[in-house]
Amino acid sequence: MDFPPVFWELATDWYQISMLGGYFHHKKVDQIAVFDLFYRQLPNHREFIITAGLEQAIEYLTRLRFDPEAIEFILAHPAFKQYPDPEGFRAYLQAFRFTGTVLAVPEGTPVAPNEPILEVIAPLGQAQLVETYLLCVIGHQSIVASKAARIVQAAQGKVVIDFGTRRAHGREAGLLGARAAYIAGCSGTSNVLAGMLFGIPVVGTQAHSWIQSFPTELDAFRAYVETYPDNNTLLIDTYDIAEGTRHAAQVGKELQQKGHTLGGVRIDSGNLATEIPRVRQILDQAGQKTTKIVVSNDLNEYKISDLAKREPEFLADIFGVGTEMIVARDDPALSVVYKLAEIDGCPCIKLSSGKVTYPGRKQIFRTKDGDVLASGEEDLPGRPLLQPVLVNGTLIAPLPELADIQQYCLEAMKTMPKPLTVTISPNLTNLVEILTAKYAQIKPKGKHK
Amino acid sequence: MDFPPVFWELATDWYQISMLGGYFHHKKVDQIAVFDLFYRQLPNHREFIITAGLEQAIEYLTRLRFDPEAIEFILAHPAFKQYPDPEGFRAYLQAFRFTGTVLAVPEGTPVAPNEPILEVIAPLGQAQLVETYLLCVIGHQSIVASKAARIVQAAQGKVVIDFGTRRAHGREAGLLGARAAYIAGCSGTSNVLAGMLFGIPVVGTQAHSWIQSFPTELDAFRAYVETYPDNNTLLIDTYDIAEGTRHAAQVGKELQQKGHTLGGVRIDSGNLATEIPRVRQILDQAGQKTTKIVVSNDLNEYKISDLAKREPEFLADIFGVGTEMIVARDDPALSVVYKLAEIDGCPCIKLSSGKVTYPGRKQIFRTKDGDVLASGEEDLPGRPLLQPVLVNGTLIAPLPELADIQQYCLEAMKTMPKPLTVTISPNLTNLVEILTAKYAQIKPKGKHK
Asked: What is the mean pLDDT of residues B316-339?
């Protein structure tokens, strides 16, 4: 299915382009800069953030080019009317490639505020230009993965499936949200494209419109299993849940006689805490003990936990979670920022209240007692989280498969220090103090835009 | 900039595909169905929703095709292992085109819950398949446009600019969010691609990293205006706002001597209610009366209204709004649904408590006293909101330009009935009663998934 080409190199803030033009004019594009990407504050009700989106960030950096049409659009902007060297800047954009080095915390790692998720070391022009896209792609997937982690935890080992695409912020947010949710432990998605591109198991049930389009519910169930005798979950709440369950059980018996099985039933309304045991009982009594119960209906971690309390046998097998997970409804944006840490070999610092940055290149060491944020040249006990991914613009090793990222993430959440505290190494503290003294009189206050 | 091709025809829930396979197998794909797309409940703090996303919905419907690779992915799914007629279904998918008719409320119209935003009249297989994508693209842009409308209103005629891409749910959400925000009255965006694709004015200022990368703030300001003598907004809060303003004013004077002007200054931190008048005074006293004041820093409609109260002269000229608008932070998802209203000529109804649907084809008549939701064949006083856009798969007229949609939207908000009440016409009420009596014993309860 074809769409017109989109110039994603322009999916950035205009000031990245105008600053790039300025750096080029003032011969600063090639000063080596170090930028950190991190988040400032935990979203509501979160104890950590699961990093996600690195694969898409790296794909962007390695493919970044300016198409001729994009360049002409830039140079036609009113700001470039008096630009001193349009031909030089055009040539710079034509030759533009990302040639920098990127260190990253592996996807699926729980991280705390102020811990660098990415460290970008690149010529200033390149490092600055990529800010917006990197923030957007990492911020989005990390916020969804972090919400999904909570939902998966609430499900206590039961299966959680992403059903969110229809309520996502567009088709791409649905696709990449499915990816992020899978990283944090979801078992599958309803998003077919996420299955094709990322290998996530693709699952689904039926809509009420299927049931409504047949004369009776039993007709609708029979027609469905005739088409899909070994891959079927029947939606039992279109008319009456108990009656729907009996119809499903009857179809299950008919399937058994032909050597097939009724895979599952889905409940999408009603009081789940009372409906689930009733449905289980009807199915069991009709000999449909292997039939799974899928539940949905605006679920989130609170509703699932509540269900576990109110329905202590916790008989549902699969939770289909949509809106609440795909938009991280209770706090849908992460305070991701991208800050200059070093320029031309000189470490930078900001001192604004509540907006501290840490200077220079850094490393995070994870120990069982907590993380230590250190200067880049330090070698401390613990696992160093920042690992090189791109070196001089080139991927140094294939990125991990998504299923491996999920496994790593689940393990990392199990073994992470709890709570996830961060202490600053003596060396880094010392550097902060030296720079604080140096900058004490000019007190930087702002933040990026 | 190239990315691998993406099979957006698969950006849908798996159950749309499995139901399509079922409808094909049971020879129901060509029964004519009518589906309504509407939202059930107002998001928190909203009095109406501004519709947006129609252009992207229509683009999808008119381009929808199944690539051979996408078809093979579908047929390789476990559900299709025992599928009775894979060759027939493959041929159906190969020939798939959307040949239906779509009526839509024009983009930029304020609508109430339960009012159809789209009415899709198409062969059942087609009408069902497109559900997920349509919900996602209309829901996303409508939620952003509706948030933007509130922010623009709070700004009382001052300029509002979208600065949100970095906090959007991915690059596409940033792009289309910029489009939605513009529809509801924003004057521009920082998103360069939104400028290129949609003609939205593209604006920007500077990052603190620009200031930090020069030895002094004054050096940084002078360098910037040397590059952009007639298109410049200087960020004055990196070190000290008053001092930054004096530096900017000095650069403004230097520009004046060369026949140029200082366009603006931006404040991105601090107590805006006290900083803005102080900055205005310093600029005015230095003869920089035309220099605009741009403010940003996690703004939303509440903070802007509060600023208008606490700083009664309301001296800021331009509000740069990011996170809060692009993710509609206080309620980031719209309860959009897509419901069967008629199948094979028979109107359908659902009776679940709180989940009522209205049967058959419909029309909305807008009068100054409120809306009337009527049956499709009725002709009542007022402006009919649902207008044909696609007829038998073909666009009947070019879609409006984005600037015209914005103008229409601003006018529609001014002239809309307040509050936006909806009454049901006697004919439609009558039809509901007839169907209620008919279905009374089976009481449908569920909703789609």
From this structure: 97
Q: What confidence tier does A445 reach under pLDDT thresholds 50, 70, 90?
A: very low
Other Cβ atoms closer than 10 A to A419: 9
Q: In chain B, positions 57-76, which contact chain A (CB-CB < 8 Å)?
A: 59, 63-67, 70, 73-74
Burial readout A235-251 (b: 16 or more C-beta within 10 A, e: otherwise): bbbbbbbebbbbbbbbb
Number of Cβ within 10 Å of residue B283's Cβ equals 24
Beta strands in A263-309 (DSSP E): 264-267, 292-295
Q: Does B21 touch chain A (CB under 8 A)?
A: yes
Rounded Cα gap, residues B251 and B253, in angstroms = 5
Which site among A18, A65, A124 would you substitute to test the B interface, given the most B Cβ atoms closer than 10 Å to its Cβ? A18
Domain span including residue A281: 170-326
- Name chain B contacts of A124, Cβ cutoff 8 Å: 213
Q: Does A39 touch chain B (CB under 8 A)?
A: no
> If residue B22 lies in a helix (H) or strand (E), which one and from where to where?
helix B14-25
Measured at the CA of B19, the angle between CA B17 and CA B23, to 5 degrees, comes to: 115
Count structural domains, chain A.
2
Residue B153 lies in a domain: no
ipTM value: 0.96
Same domain (yes/no): A126, A46: yes
Q: Best residue in B13, B63, B66 to probe A by mutation, most A CBs within 10 Å?
A: B13
| End-of-domain residue from the set A326, A359, A375 | A326
Domain harbouring A177, CATH code: 3.20.20.70
Tell me whether residue A3 is in a domain: no
Do B75 and B134 have their domain in common?
yes
Does A173 touch chain B if contact means CB atoms closer than 8 Å?
yes
Judge if the upstream peptide bond of residue A419 is cis by omega within 30 degrees of 0: yes
Fill in the amino acid letter for A93: L
Residue A68's CATH number: 3.20.140.10
Q: What was the pLDDT predicted at A357?
A: 87
Tell me if chain A has a CB within 8 Å of the CB of B246: no
**Mean predicted confidence (pLDDT) in A183-205:** 97
B378 occurs within a structural domain: yes
Residue B366 tokens, joined: 């807008």
A165 lies in a domain? no
Residues of A with Cβ-Cβ distance to B77 under 8 angstroms: 195, 202
